[in-house]
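Researcher: Structure for this, please.
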Amino acid sequence: MSASPAFKIEPGSPQAWREAFLGMKPSVVPCPGLTPAGWQAVHAASLDFLDKHADEAGRLGWTTLQLFGVHPDLGVIRSDFCGAMVLSGDLVSKVEVDFIRFERTRYFRNVPGRPKGAVPIWAAKR
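Model: Predicted structure, token format:
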């Protein structure tokens, strides 16, 4: 699935995140490294995030890639490219300025050495 030409990767885009993500089917794995069961968990957790926490994440300046980024060719196989919502399928319990708290772990927003070049999961190659 390709990203909309009008889609911009910027902070504070909860509506754009919703629109792009809602075009993805839970039955179609969008990128390498996800199993069908893993993708279904990520999809469900992302929908929960979009309903409950996306507006706060946008207000705090989280970007599309910090949330939904993956490696453009290798998907989640390169976890160092991955955004918070594509790694585990765990539900978000709280969004903070510097991290997102999940049920069992945290995703830190700014990790030194994180590579550049990620794309939103909806724009990754299958």
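Researcher: Any notable elements?
Model: The helical segments are 14-22, 36-52, 54-59, 64-68. Confidence is low (pLDDT under 50) at residues 1-8.
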